[in-house]
Structure formats: structure tokens, C-alpha cells
Amino acid sequence: MPDSTQRPLRFDLIAFDWDGTLYDSTGIIVRCIQAAVRDVGGTVPSERAAAYVIGMSLNQALAHAAPDVPPERYPQLGERYRHHYRLHHGDLSLFDGVLPLLDALKARGHLLAVATGKSRRGLNEVLATEQLRGMFDRSRTADETAGKPDPRMLHELMQEFGLPPERVLMVGDTTHDLLMARNAGCASLGVSYGAHTPEAFAELGPLGVLHSVAELDDWLRDNA
Predict the structure, then answer these.
(1) Are 112 and 135 in contact (CB under 8 A)?
(2) Is 222 a catalytic residue?
(3) Hey, which residues does 19 pair with through a beta bridge?
(4) Looking at residue 4, what is its pLDDT?
(5) Is 91 one of the catalytic residues?
(6) Does residue 23 come out as left (phi exceeding 0), alpha (psi in the -120 to 50 range) or beta?
(7) Which helix (H) or strand (E) holds 169?
């Protein structure tokens, strides 16, 4: 088999979602959403309903997960979510295999970015860790651009690097990620180990659906 490091790159920029794609946080986010809604007296969403909103901006996600909570209580709802999330911050980590995957992509000459529904503050906290410092060339968060599936995050990244859509690949675990990529004219990959079950992925046209970080690593090595 030819050495993958010598092949021309199909994609110059690979943009990753964060939670549920690189970061093993889906279960804790679901429980924090449920606890926040309970705290403000709303109807607690099911695990599936809470998982569905992962990837959206925080206010958008909480409003969708708690439709019976009035808008004037959204600030309190957001504060309670952040409170519960902070309690579990030390329990979160990258999925096994993510660091070698990212290192290999950089060694092959790809630009790397994060496009996430997290806040800038929340993303900066994790990117400041020693293992991730300097790993990503750029990042975009929902609170500084627009929430998924609006394509603004990807449009801004493409503009910064001077890249056309066909040179950009978006990797994510939710329909919000894949729809954002489609809206931006970019290719996408879905991963099935995060927040959304992959049954709805096919209609959004991803190049593939991978079921583990190892499968994702293999696909990127052979096809990106």
C-alpha cells in the first residue's frame, strides 16, 4: 500500500465537533441538562431528548430541551447547567485514540479546527491543557458566531484559510454537525459513538459513518 504521507491531500482543513466527537462528554452533558431543567421546575427531558440538543448553542439547546420553561428563566437555566457541568469537569476526557489521530493528521499536513456549540470560555479551558496546546490551527464556538446548523462557523474558517468548500471536511456526531456541513457546501463524516444515533445521518450525505475512533483514524488516513 502506498505511504499515506506521500499522497496529495484531499482535504486541506479538517474541522471537528468537540463534545461526543473528540471529547467523551455526552452522558454527563445529558445529566447536566436534566438536572438544570429539574432545578428550575421544568419537565425533565428524556435522555434521548437531552442528547438531541448537544451541539447546539447553550441557550438554543436548553430552550429546545425545556419547552415549558419560560424565556425569562433561560438565564437561570443556563446558570444551573453550568453549575452542574463544573461539578463533573474533572470526570471528562478525550476519547481513547484521539491524540494519536490528531498528531497523525498534523504530520500529514492537514490544518485542524474545532467547530463547536460550546462557549469560547469552555473550549479555551480544555484547549489550554498541555496535551492540546497548539494542536488546533483555529476554532469557532457558537457564542461568537452562530449555532449549528447555521454554516457561519465553517464559512469563517474557510475565509480565514482562503479555502473553497470542497477542501474542507467536517467531522461530527450529530445531525446538527452534518447539516451545518451541507449548508456550508462541505463534505462531512459522521461518528456513531456520540450524542445522536446514526439512523438520520444518511439523508445528510456524509462520506461515511464511523463507529469508533480507530475506524475514524483509518478512514482519514486512507481517504483524507
Answers:
(1) yes
(2) no
(3) 23
(4) 52
(5) no
(6) beta
(7) strand 168-172
